[in-house]
Amino acid sequence: DAGVIQSPRHEVTEMGQEVTLRCKPISGHDYLFWYRQTMMRGLELLIYFNNNVPIDDSGMPEDRFSAKMPNASFSTLKIQPSEPRDSAVYFCASSLSPSEQYFGPGTRLTVT
Amino acid sequence: GENVEQHPSTLSVQEGDSAVIKCTYSDSASNYFPWYKQELGKRPQLIIDIRSNVGEKKDQRIAVTLNKTAKHFSLHITETQPEDSAVYFCAASPTTSGTYKYIFGTGTRLKVLA
């Protein structure tokens, strides 16, 4: 079992650029979660999907953020345009049920 | 809104001593309480969890207790070792109300001194 896979692991971009983060959940898991982690705000849930359908996106900070899950094995989180305050570690997690979420290795995003 | 408070924010113990981290939650619909360990630069990893129909759960040197009436739950680590040094997060989540959001605590940085 490869676990949750995220890419890229590190991303450095300039303010105003579009950023796309990618996630492959554990095979068979039907819940997928996107989190953001910063020192100031801790671990925040941005959005989660069940069976590829977005269920709760109330944590998405603003319209610059969007997430999609076109199929059971792939999801993207897009930021357009990016801003320095978006700098954080973004984690994807998946689970077979609403509990027991397994986190990916994260993408460290730096926006200059 | 839902809130999970976690204390202490930092904790230093001598190797071999016990460590206790406490959390309180506000949403009475919460019925699932996981604990995650995050080492520096790594992903959060589930170490133990408890559901609201259980008061205590143990797994080797770690245990979690839940007081649903008081909305408190705690992580207990006995015989601490240097490799226990990490940030620990508690979380609370409803799993039956149709929305399955984890609300995380702010984390406890545990340092085990050799």
What does this structure look like?
The complex is a heterodimer of chains A (112) and B (114). Chain A is mostly beta strands. The model of chain A has no long low-confidence stretch (mean pLDDT 94). In chain A, strands 2, 4, 5, 6, 9, 10 and 11 form a seven-stranded mixed β-sheet that branches. Chain A has a four-stranded antiparallel β-sheet with strand order 1-3-8-7, with no helix packed on it. Chain A has strands spanning 5-7, 10-13, 19-24, 31-38, 42-50, 53-56, 65-71, 74-79, 88-95, 102-103, 107-111. In chain A, a hairpin with a 2-residue loop joins β7 and β8. By secondary structure, chain B is mainly β. Chain B contains no helices and eleven strands. Chain B has strands spanning 4-7, 10-14, 19-25, 32-38, 45-51, 56-59, 62-67, 72-77, 86-92, 103-104, 108-113. Chain B is globular. In chain B, 35% of the residues are buried. At the A-B interface, β5 and β10 of A face β4 and β5 of B.
Quick take:
Chain A has 112 residues and is mainly beta. Chain A is 0% helix and 55% strand. Chain A has no helices and 11 strands.
Indicate the multimeric state. heterodimer
Structural class of chain B: mainly beta
Cα distance, first to last residue of chain B? Answer: 41 Å
Mean pLDDT of chain A, to the nearest integer, reads: 94
Helical content class of chain B: under 10%
The number of helices of chain B is 0
Q: Could you give the count of β-strands of chain A?
A: 11
Low-confidence stretches of chain A: none
Helicity level of chain A, as a percent range?
under 10%
What integer value in Å does the Rg of chain B equal?
14 Å
Elements of chain B, N to C (H/E) = EEEEEEEEEEE
Low-confidence stretches of chain B: none
Mean pLDDT of chain B: 92
Chain pair with largest interface: A-B, 21 and 21 residues
